[in-house]
Amino acid sequence: MEPSLTALFVDCDSYFASVEQHLDPSLRGRPVAVAPVMAESTSCIAASYEAKAFGVKTGTPIHEARKLCPGIVVVKGNHAEYVNFHHQVKAAVESCIHVEAALSIDEMWCWLPYNWRERKTVEELAVKIKAAVARDVSPVIKVSIGAGPNKWIAKVASKMRKPDGLFIIESHEMPHALYPLELQDLYGIGRSMELRLHASGIHSVEELCAAPKNVLHSAWGGIAGNRLWYTLRGMEIPSELTTRRSISHSHILPPESRSPVKAWGILCKLLHKASGRMRAYGLLTGSLILQLRFINGETWVVEAPIPETDSTLRLINLLGRLWRDRPEPEAPLLKVGMVLQKLCEKNNFTPQLPGISGEPEQDLADIEKQQRLDQTLDQLRNRFGKQVIFLGSVQQSREAAPMRIAFDYIPDLKLDMD
Fold first, then answer.
1. Fewer C-beta neighbours within 10 Å, C or N terminus of the chain?
2. pLDDT at 362 over 80
3. Second CATH level (architecture) for the domain 174-242
């Protein structure tokens, strides 16, 4: 019979906290929480296993973490280091087997070659990968490894023996190997999806695996349910082609930056980052969204269309118009964010006829000036660093809003480093 293992998944354990424990040996063996800013009102973005033993987890408010775990050490996230160590871990895994793709800052997966698909071979490979990470990166940074008949099952398996674990699920062990899990333990099922499954009569993983294809199709509202039905049976479904639909940045403001004046400078910096990334990807945007959360808990979100552009100056001007229309202009803010949407490829874009959009028209010479300005700024910043030159709106916020890591985006230090 043909070996059933095709994919191997590597997942770093408590990654951010483990990097902090590597960098500071005094933190090893102690409960550690990583926070985006040093403020009691913010939440943990990571917790060490020592902290998790007390109930601290991602999303736990810092003030609550201190109550759950007296003596917990709170450190500010160092995202540039997390990116650096990501590449070191990837290189260590690559020394053992080719990495097909990094799916996030702490996850990557590999296709198993045809002659490496026996269970014993996979077990030996996993031991080799763990040794390479310990030797070439740090013995403090541990990885859990899963293997299965497809990438999705391998990912689930990697979560089932944490930390520093190895779990292998072969085709003949499906689907009962998944039965001990909760629905939300499965990749792609969050709280809202779980409620939809409950409405379809599915309350356990066993019931999910037994459900007919049409029931999953209905629960997911489309072919995503069909894809999961096949995936649960060990089949590898080709990935859907995806296109980048948005570029966003947000920042939780520390207490000293919550005044409107300082929040505005940080918001401008976020837009600078986003527009620089957009140009690096060869894209244009046709919509800008401003997102504000006030100290009193209220939120305000507004979207404005714009003729397709990659000009930082045009986007800053539009952002300023939206900012001036915000409610309670003197109220302090807790979080600011912006999103560039309706993205299109610059090389495949056909401009609208003048006057169609309702926006003030720009002559060709003005557009070319803005393009030359952005090109010059990008070249100088990429060569000499992000602090060498910037528009005046960022002057008071150069040290604020440092690089952050999203769940599905690994920052490029050349594009994102401040």
1. N
2. no
3. Orthogonal Bundle (1.10)
